[in-house]
Design goal:
Mean pLDDT: 87
Helix content: 25-40%
Radius of gyration: 32 Å
Order of helices and strands: EHHEHEHEHHEEEEHEHEEHE
Strand order of the largest sheet: 2-1-3-8-7-6
Largest sheet: 6 strands, mixed
């Protein structure tokens, strides 16, 4: 009689009724997705603290809306205010129209800490900002002796009635100056009436800075990569979700061979801004970023 066979045949334990595999080896051809890089948990969001002051800019002039003249004052004011810890939230550009200017002054001054106007304070028929600002607050227009004296001293025998129009201000307006800027800037309540000529507008920034004073500053960092925005989007979304108090910006560039996209990280808490930048950099592939600032 031949030898008895074991149950299961060939001694293969997989045929035994009590066999349970402890590990299943994948087929050599089977593949798995690469692990998704993770970022370290961000530091806790600090208390909101005092909110930043806000501002709006009302740019006035037919010449701007007709394309005859390029505006140069928005970026000047934006940079100046940012250095003072003030957020420029809105810019409005309108025609030379008293009713429209007056309406915008009322609305923007009521919804912002500060309103700046650019243009319409010269000597000609289309310079209507002073009149409109007075109307916005129900005030009359009157000559300011200080301005009239400066105009007479500057123009001397060339002085005209048109020149003297530039001495008119809304009643109760404040005239602010600094030692380096002899011609004062005009303010009525929280509205600054600034000239549209870029060189003069820029000079008035010294007066604005001295009057507003410095607030809690903003902090900014940047990352430069050769990756396009479509690839960067999920990485940016993760940082935005983790750092809601940091303003994350993405700006493509086509003319610079050293990078394709600039990413910026801005906020009022320096540690949070730095942490957001570092969290983003940690998700970039090898060879990136090109540089950080």
């Amino acid at each position: 009689m031949g030898a008895r066979r074991r149950r299961g045949g060939n001694g293969d334990p997989r045929h035994l009724p009590y066999y349970t595999p402890s590990r299943v080896r994948p087929s050599p051809r089977q593949s798995y997705p690469a692990p998704v890089p993770t970022t370290p948990p961000p530091p806790p969001v600090p208390p909101a603290g005092d909110p930043p002051r806000t501002a709006a800019l009302l740019v006035i002039g037919n010449e701007l809306l007709s394309g005859k003249v390029d505006d140069a004052n928005v970026v000047v004011l934006a940079r100046e205010l940012r250095g003072l810890g003030v957020v420029l939230r809105r810019v409005v550009m309108i025609l030379d129209d008293v009713a429209e200017i007056s309406r915008e002054i009322r609305e923007l001054s009521a919804s912002h800490d500060w309103l700046f106007t650019s243009g319409g304070v010269g000597p000609t028929h289309d310079d209507l900002t002073t009149e409109a600002a007075a109307a916005a607050f129900g005030l009359p227009v009157a000559p300011a002796p200080e301005l009239e004296e400066l105009l007479r001293a500057h123009y001397k025998e060339r002085l005209t009635e048109g020149h003297l129009r530039m001495a008119l201000v809304p009643e109760g307006a404040t005239l602010s100056r600094t030692p380096s800027v002899p011609w004062p800037a005009i303010r009525i309540r929280n509205v600054w009436l600034l000239p549209g000529v870029p060189e003069i507008f820029r000079a008035k920034m010294a007066v604005v800075a001295a009057s507003l004073g410095a607030g809690r500053p903003f902090h900014s960092r940047a990352v430069y990569t050769k990756m396009d925005e479509g690839v960067l989007k999920p990485l940016l979304d993760a940082v935005v979700a983790s750092f809601p108090d940091v303003d994350v910006g993405s700006y493509p560039r086509w003319s610079d061979p050293s990078y394709k996209t600039k990413l910026t990280f801005d906020g009022r808490d320096a540690d949070r801004v730095r942490a957001a930048q570092e969290a983003f950099v940690a998700t970039l592939p090898e060879g990136e970023p090109q540089r950080v600032e």
